[in-house]
Specification:
single chain, 274 residues, alpha+beta, 9-stranded antiparallel beta sheet, 3-stranded antiparallel beta sheet, 8 helices, 12 strands
Length: 274
């Protein structure tokens, strides 16, 4: 007798495929996957080796979150073409999930980097750092825009880029360097959103690659102009020309309760030497 035609008990067949025998019993009850034979002496279900590929197909589809009714429909119309279509659909879904997981990982890496910065920073230090180019989603604002309106604008952009939650991205504000040089330290013109998975450039603000002045400010916004004066004095002393925008973002919002402990990271592009 060919060993592949030998009948296996439900326990043996379940163990062969790494599932519980109750799963096979349920599949039988709903007509999804029937045993090869029923033992006439004890009524036990029996299976053979030739059924393994069919069961593995069902298990694969279940692992891909294909519903039981969908699988039942496929099994009634089983063909290479139908299986190909079903697998193409699930592969596309998996690709989207992978993109989301990659974005989540990048977001977590950014938060971890912020925590590293918090643990090693010197709040009094002003330093030069090198940054890669980054694409930012921006929202135009001015001093007459209310906080409520800013929230509405950010919420709209969050929905536009299909963010699941607000903190799937990092947010900040931008003030032109020209305004800073004129003593207008609260002349904010844009809000920005760092979205991890943006692959396009069209319609986005490009934060340029290069050297930046980086500094930090802890405490209320009313003291921020004093910090900017220190930054500009440092740039003047070092003969550094600043251009573009100052990019501000909070880096410790997730680990504080008091606004007095809020820390803002300030980064301004260095365009050259004066």
């Amino acid at each position: 007798m060919n060993k592949k035609n030998k009948l296996l008990t439900i326990g043996q067949f379940a163990a062969l495929h790494g599932i519980n025998k109750k799963t096979l019993m349920w599949y039988d009850e709903i007509g999804l996957f029937k045993p090869a034979a029923i033992n006439l002496e004890n009524g036990y279900r029996c299976y053979n080796y030739h059924q393994s590929p069919i069961l593995e197909t069902i298990l694969l589809l279940r692992e891909l979150d294909v519903s039981v009714p969908e699988i039942q429909n496929f099994m009634k119309n089983r063909s290479a073409q139908n299986l190909k279509c079903l697998l193409n659909e699930k592969i596309a879904e998996l690709d989207l999930q992978l993109l989301h997981l990659q974005a989540v990982r990048k977001t977590l890496s950014c938060h971890r980097q912020d925590m590293d910065t918090l643990l090693t920073m010197d709040l009094s230090e002003i330093c030069i750092v090198e940054k890669e180019e980054q694409c930012l989603v921006t929202v135009d604002i001015d001093k007459d825009v209310t906080f409520e309106r800013e929230v509405e604008l950010i919420t709209a952009e969050t929905a536009r880029y299909r963010l699941c939650r607000l903190h799937d991205a990092s947010y900040g504000s931008m003030v032109p360097v020209a305004s800073l040089l004129n003593g207008n330290f609260d002349g904010y013109t844009r809000l920005f959103i760092e979205i991890p998975w943006l692959g396009q450039r069209s319609g986005l603000h490009i934060q340029p690659k290069g050297n930046y002045l980086r500094a930090f400010h802890k405490g209320g916004w009313d003291q921020l102009p004093l910090r900017y004066q220190e930054i500009l004095a440092f740039a003047h002393e070092k003969g550094l020309a600043l251009s573009g925008y100052s990019y501000e973002k909070g880096i410790n919002e997730t680990v504080i309760d008091r606004i007095e402990d809020y820390i803002v990271q300030i980064e301004i592009p260095i365009s050259g030497m004066v």
